[in-house]
Amino acid sequence: MKKLVAEFVGTLVLVVCGCGTAMLVGCNAAVGCGYILTALAFGLTIVAMAYSIGNTSGCHINPAVSLGIFMTGGISLSEFLQYIIAQCLGALAGSGVLYAIFELGDVLDMTGGLASNGLGGVGGSAAAGLLVEIILTFIFVLAILGVNSKKASHGSFAGLVVGLTLTLVHILGIGLTGTSVNPARSFGPAVIAAITGHTEPIACLWVFIVGPLLGAVLAALVYKFLDD
After folding, report:
1. Three-state secondary structure call for residue 217
2. Mean pLDDT of 163-184
3. I need a surface site. Which of 111, 155, 163, 205 has the fewest CB within 10 A?
4. Other CB atoms closer than 10 Å to residue 23's CB: what's the count?
5. What CA–CA distance (Å, rounded) separates 2 from 214?
6. 9: alpha, beta or left, given left = phi > 0 and alpha = psi -120 to 50?
7. What is the pLDDT of residue 112?
8. How far is CA 129 from the centre of its chain?
9. Which of 22, 3, 5, 4 is nearest to 185 (CA)?
10. What pLDDT is attached to residue 172?
11. What is the dihedral sign for C-alpha 38, 118, 109, 91?
12. Whole-angstrom distance, CA of residue 112 vs CA of residue 52
């Protein structure tokens, strides 16, 4: 139960800090600082959570990460399924918090539907969006599997490495898909946005579930090949 609570809280914080920053600063290509601030927000949140809940649950806070770790023998099938449920609930709760702050608090309009992911940067192409998410998630999950390997010598710097890797993939992916690499992060904002009248993100949500999961599978397969 403590592991599930940790995953719930960690995913909630990721959505509030990451998506909340994206809503505040925007992600306009003409204003590069918005990209950097959003990328740093997601990356630094991972660092903070890694050093706070990592010893309890491993700080997956991402179904794609949990899938990669499950495929490499790090968790059982039962734990994997429970982690996903906790992560999705945390993302929903985090999105609800953002809605309360930004909409009910009248801070500003819900631009982009609670920072939901989309396909505008790839011309609306689901195929291109899938490819982007597969590649970015592959990089992210491969780094996580490597840094947590028994052969790794990163020690207490593992959380920092993971956070910086998430920052890296966001810098590339924000202008293309908004960067998901995390089905729960995409699920929560899209669902709450749809409930509150912003239905566009829910239509392409499948891309940001399938893409990251395929990327995680590929990363796990490559990692197992390299690690043997």
Report:
1. helix
2. 95
3. 155
4. 23
5. 28
6. alpha
7. 53
8. 15
9. 22
10. 93
11. negative
12. 30
Cα–Cα dist 163/80, whole Å: 22
List the one residue out of 159, 191, 89 whose CA is nearest residue 81.
89
Average pLDDT over residues 60-76: 95
Residue 65 has what pLDDT?
Answer: 97
Q: 25 near 33, Cβ under 8 Å?
A: yes
Q: What single string gives the DSSP state of each residue in 87-139?
A: HHHHHHHHHHHHHIIIIITTSS--THHHH---SGGGTT-HHHHHHHHHHHHHH
* Measured CA distances, 171 to 38, 92, 146, 177, 195 (Å): 8, 25, 21, 11, 29
Query: Residue 108 above 80 pLDDT?
Result: no
Block residue for tokens 């500003």: 108
